[in-house]
Every structure is written in structure tokens, then in C-alpha cells.
Write a structure and sequence with these properties.
Elements: E1 4-7, E2 10-13, E3 18-24, E4 33-39, E5 46-51, E6 58-60, E7 68-73, E8 78-83, E9 92-99, E10 114-115, E11 119-124
Parallel strand pairs: 2-11
Antiparallel strand pairs: 1-3, 3-8, 4-5, 4-9, 5-6, 7-8, 9-10, 9-11
Length: about 120
């Protein structure tokens, strides 16, 4: 079992930056692949970024590529999402998620086993 707690959301102007953190419980964090998703009102939850167990592989949605980075610190049981050049369309609740699998990094919500409660990111124009 893994419990995930996101933090770092808030209100920022367009062009600004935020860094989200996701702290995980348990001693097996390094065996999980981690992902970030977001959900805007009235829309489906969409993939943002994913990172492999060691942090050596990452994958991003086209909409955030070049603006967002994902990283992890296994010693701190934490995964991060650095968001730069934010746009109003980035406004959403952001969720981190964990999954254990082999093969490619997962990009769909149903592939993930554990979820955090979410943190709100609002980008004003």
C-alpha cells in the first residue's frame, strides 16, 4: 500500500512557475513508477508526465513538453513536477499516482494503482 500526498499548488499568473511535490509513504517507493495527471472542471483526467523507478526515464504529454519537468528523490520518497511558463489552460487539479509494472511508462489513469487527493493549480491570464 502506498499513500500519496500532493502539495505546492496555488494561484500563479500566466508565464509563472510552480513546483508540485508528492510525498509517498512506505519503504517501497523506489519500486514504483510515478505519474502526474490533471483534471479540469468538466473534463476527463489527463496524463501530464511519468517517471521510471530510478528516474532515468521520463515521458511527457505534448501539451507540457518543454515547459514541465518531472523528477524524484527516492531517499525522500518524493516526486516533483516543476511547471514553468504556465498558461491559463494548465489550470486544473493535479494528482500524483503510483504504479508497478514493466514495459513502457503508463499514460492512462487506469494503469495506476494509487492516487493522491490532488492539489489545485490556477493560472490567471
Amino acid at each position: 500500500q502506498v499513500q500519496l500526498v500532493e502539495s505546492g499548488g496555488g494561484l500563479v499568473q500566466a508565464g509563472g512557475s510552480l513546483r508540485l511535490s508528492c510525498a509517498a509513504s512506505g519503504r517501497t517507493f523506489s519500486s514504483y513508477r510515478m505519474g502526474w495527471f490533471r483534471q479540469a472542471p468538466g473534463k476527463e483526467r489527463e496524463f501530464v508526465a511519468a517517471i521510471s523507478e530510478s528516474g532515468g526515464s521520463t515521458y511527457f504529454a505534448n501539451s507540457v513538453k518543454g515547459r514541465f519537468t518531472i523528477s524524484r528523490d527516492n531517499a525522500k520518497n518524493t516526486v516533483y513536477l516543476q511547471m514553468n511558463s504556465l498558461k491559463p489552460e494548465d489550470t486544473a487539479v493535479y494528482y500524483c499516482a503510483a504504479e508497478r509494472a514493466i514495459g513502457r511508462l503508463a499514460t492512462t489513469p487506469w494503469e495506476y494503482d494509487y492516487w493522491g487527493q490532488g492539489t489545485q493549480v490556477t493560472v490567471s491570464s
